[in-house]
Amino acid sequence: PTPLGPTPKLVIDLERMQQLPQDKAGPLARYIATIQSQRGDYNGRVLSIRQEDLRSLAVIYDRSPGDLTEELIDWGVLDPEARRAVDAF
Length: 89
Ligand code: C2E
Ligand code: C2E
Ligand code: C2E
What we know:
Elements: E1 10-13, H1 14-19, H2 22-39, E2 46-49, H3 51-60, H4 65-75, H5 82-87
Antiparallel strand pairs: 1-2
Helix pairs in contact: 3-4
Bound molecules: ligand C2E (3 copies).
Residues 9, 39, 48-51 line the site of one ligand C2E.
């Protein structure tokens, strides 16, 4: 077993996401809204997403998954722990 424990989840802070300027967070917010609608999961303060979906978001934002992760951490939407989830790609 690794001393760092299992791979952390990618957990989006929905409240923080709503506070961001539209031009930055618009594509992210639309993507997340789609997942919420597919799951019927509207009431959470956070949303756990698939690693695969971070890859799709990276394509949308025209960045590498690692760079987008740094940006989302800067915005306060992802926890810094999420770096370990993306390093595992
Ligand atoms: P699906 O991928 O065929 O998954 C069917 C059901 O299996 C999901 O219903 C959920 O109950 C369960 N499931 C699948 N993968 C996971 C997982 O990694 N963790 C957990 N806890 N459960 C899982 P649900 O949630 O109602 O989603 C319905 C459909 O909506 C999914 O069908 C999928 O097509 C889409 N969807 C939901 N959430 C996501 C997401 O985060 N990313 C993507 N790409 N699609 C999603
Ligand atoms: P966790 O994954 O660390 O999540 C902690 C809490 O964050 C959850 O408490 C829930 O309040 C919130 N949360 C995380 N991801 C989501 C999300 O995608 N949608 C919403 N609405 N809330 C989210 P909760 O629900 O009491 O779950 C406690 C623990 O139970 C979770 O810890 C996880 O370890 C497990 N768990 C709950 N649902 C699932 C599931 O669908 N799949 C798996 N594998 N574990 C689950
Ligand atoms: P989780 O539920 O703890 O699942 C952790 C990992 O186990 C998932 O990572 C995925 O690799 C695998 N897994 C769990 N359930 C299924 C399943 O039904 N089918 C398949 N093919 N794999 C499964 P992943 O995909 O990165 O997802 C991370 C977290 O995002 C999940 O943690 C869960 O909290 C959330 N999630 C992802 N997809 C769905 C979904 O369709 N519905 C719901 N409700 N939550 C989802």
